[in-house]
Amino acid sequence: MTTLEETRQRAEADAKTFGYYLTPQPELLQGFLEGLKTNEDRYGYPLCPCRLASGNFEFDRDIICPCDYRDPDVAQYGSCYCRLYVNKQVFESKNLPEVPERRPIEKQQRAYGIQATAKTAFASAQGEQQASTLTMQAPKPQPTVKKKLWYCKQCGYVVFREDPPYVCPICKAKKEMFAEIESNIEFNG
C-alpha cells in the first residue's frame, strides 16, 4: 500500500518535471492526494481523483494520474480538469479555472458500462444554455479492448494500447502525429 506522503512526493516530482505546480489550496490538495491514494489502494494504479473509474485497467488507462488530458488542459486553461496540476500563473493567483471534461463520452460510457447520451438544449432567443440531462439505460456487456501498436512520427515513441495518447509523453506531439504499426506474426509449430 502506498502512503499519503509517497503519493504527495510522486505528484510533486511529476509537477516539477513538467514545470507545473500542485493546486495552491491546501484543503483541496489534501483531498486530491487522499483520492489518489484511495484509488491506488483500491485498483492498484493511481487513478484521477476527480473521475469515476471502472476498475478495468484497459478502460481506465487514459485517466491514470497524470491523465492523458492533463498537458493539453494546463496549456489551454492553466489547470488540469481536477485542478491538481496548475501552471505558475494559476498557482500565484490562487484563482482556479473551470476546465471542461476533455475525456470522450464514448470512453466514459464504456468505462461505466452504461449507454448514456448527453443532451444540451440552447434557448434560441437569448442564447442561454439550459440544464444538461444524462439519460442512462441498463448496463451492457463490457466490450473487449483491441490494442494496437502506435508510434509517434515525431520522436519514435511506441505504445501498445487501444488509442494513441492525447499527447506524446516524450515530445508532446499531438495525437494526430501517431500512426498505427501494422504487423502480422505467424507461428510455425
Describe the fold and architecture.
The chain has 189 residues and is α+β, with helices and mostly antiparallel strands. It has two domains: 4-113, Ferredoxin Thioredoxin Reductase (Alpha-Beta Complex), CATH 3.90.460.10; 146-189, Rubrerythrin, domain 2. It is built from six helices and seven strands; from the N terminus they run αβαααβααβββββ. The strands form three sheets. It has a three-stranded antiparallel sheet with strand order 6-5-7, with no helix packed on it. Strands 1-2 form a two-stranded antiparallel ribbon. Strands 3-4 form a two-stranded antiparallel sheet. A hairpin with a 5-residue loop joins strand 5 (148-152) and strand 6. Helix 1 (4-17) packs across helix 2 (26-43). The model is unreliable at 115-136 (pLDDT under 50).
Question: How is the topology of this model organized?
Answer:
Blueprint: H1 4-17, E1 21-22, H2 26-43, H3 57-60, H4 70-77, E2 85-86, H5 88-93, H6 105-112, E3 116-119, E4 133-136, E5 148-152, E6 158-161, E7 178-181
Antiparallel strand pairs: 1-2, 3-4, 5-6, 5-7
